[in-house]
Amino acid sequence: MKLSNLLEALKPVRDGRSEVRDPDIDIGSIHYRAQEVKPGGLFVAVAGHVADGHDFIDEALARGASAIVA
Fold it and tell me: Domain span at residue 33?
């Protein structure tokens, strides 16, 4: 799936700190656990009962995430 298709459906809110660099990159997988992110994956950072996914964004990027939903 193209990131541009996801962005169209989600209508992202920009906070001035983020930008879409390439809306036509392919997203091969979707993850909510940074430890499972694969190159080309989309990481969805959510606050859980035990941990906050936002704390793992850097790890997801290091594992090859192409995009982050926060």
Answer: 3-15+27-69
- Which pLDDT tens digit goes with each residue over 48-63? 899 999 999 999 999 9
Token look-up 């036509």 returns 24
pTM confidence score:
0.74
In a domain, 20, yes or no: no
Judged by phi (left if over 0) then psi (alpha if -120 to 50, else beta), residue 16 lies in left
Q: Assign residue 48 a region (left: φ > 0; alpha: ψ between -120 and 50; beta: otherwise).
A: beta
Closest CA to 44 of 58, 33, 28: 33
